[in-house]
Amino acid sequence: MMRRKAFALVMGAIALAMFMGCSAISQTESVPPKHPEELAGMRPDCRECHEDVSTGALKPYASFRHSTVFIKQHSMYASQGQNLCASCHAPSFCETCHIRQDELKPSTKMGDRPGRVFQHRGDYVVLHQLDGRLDPGSCFRCHGNKNDTRCQACHR
Amino acid sequence: MRDARLGVDPRLWTGLCCAALLLLLPALLPAPCQAADITLSSRSYLLSYQRDVTGGDDKNYVPLYEYLSADASNLGDMPISFHFYGWGRVDLADDTNDDNGYNGDLGSAYFQYLHPTGNAEMRLGRFFFTEGTAAEIMDGIFLKARTPVGFGLSVFGGVPVERSITATDTGDSIYGGRLFFARSGFTEIGVTYLMENGDFQGDDREMVGGDLWVQPFKGVELSGRASYNVSTSALAQQRYVLRLTSISRLDVAAGYEEYKYKDLFQTALNSAFLSPSIDPNDEAQIVFATVDIEVASGWTVEGGVKAIQHDASDPGDATRVEAGLRHAYNDSKDLCGLSAAIVSADQAENEYQEYRIFGTYSMDVWRFTLDALTQRYKEEISGIKDAYQVVGTAGWQVLPYLKLSGDVTYTRSPRFTEDYAGLVRASLDLGTTTGGK
Known about the structure:
Structural class of chain A: mainly alpha
Mean pLDDT of chain B: 88
Number of helices of chain B: 3
Oligomer: heterodimer
Shape of chain B: globular
């Protein structure tokens, strides 16, 4: 059953690729794989160089200024295209947090970068009892069906 | 608390040899590997801490972690690349017997084709992707393309990469796709279908979602996402945000989110989201707002409020109000800030306050940071009402591609009476990288 589905999926993907073909694809330039210039380590503001709409992402550069507002809503933008993120961030950047299994929380791995916005600073094993009771949906996004190694200690 | 272990444990030598090998990589790699198209990034962490064990002696932990990522692009002079990310851990202390002292995970290993136009792409292998209302890790294939008229399609399928703590099947296949329409600078709207075969509370995981981004006026954006759970035949979650970016130094957003426990958490494998840990009949409605204002060059004020309403009296309603100030200095190489958050709730056990102050200082090849955090609970947790954590770090840029740093962390909380932990970090970046990190 699973093999049939996998076969159908692969065939469907090949059919889609053939159907789309290069001529059926928009000729609008894609987001470049890498930003052409080195960026500063701090929060970038695309508007320092760009004024208009990103031809690849089809959204204004102003939307991607890495303010606290953007960082808290970044999933809304990434869900409509990760290419612009990958242009500046290393491909594995998302996996600093979004990974199947990890043991070190991001704030430990990057303890030398206190300016970064992280969810689990301090002894969050204690605090999650309060935050998790009030808004479990915010935990669910990352820990609902993956990255739950630390949860095992109590939630069995 | 610290226990410096000087014995000649074989695992210690293995770990040290691995670390030495990584540090010598620049000399060992052939010249082509240092070309612009190949990058290698290594993060090694050596931790040292001690934990109490019920009914026994204290246990010492000295785990050595290695996080490795590698990217090779322009393979064969084509827009094809290969990306790898994974980590491993070996315990260097004798008395760390859990899981034999080893663990690790392959985060991603995939080929990617990026078409020069239309943001068309293909990924093959293990990867994390987010597309519409789907955000998954899988072993499989992902295809996406946009047509000249603005319509686009993405499809994905493969085997889900999940970790279950309930020992249930994690699903043997996952597939779906997204149909979308995008018009530059004005809108993008999509519909996502996701199906995962498996045992999710006796059912499959089948979701239909919608996502929207629209900019009716310059600097005014409305975005939203909603997910319908086909297995429970109900709207599981919806979230909408209105954001203003029209004023150059001001960024403000306000939004509404709603989710139903039984419909959203039906897809959970983590028992923390299942009854009896939570009340499946509860629903949450959340109103939130965030603001970020650059009040002067290098000075940013941040604020936020989040009001949570529950149908169930337990846990009841709550409101979180937070504010902060950040200051970038030293040619924006350094940053300091302070913040405060207050959570008020119907039930006192959910109330707490949080205060934080941090700063960095860079000087030539040296960098120092200090980060202090305290949380004050309204009601005692394990007899304690206050928690503290202070992290101090010192870093040394040894070579352009090699940085060493060390952390000392002090924690006092309901779990730790007095806890000191040490961390040594080696960061190695080889190859040419552009952009951020």
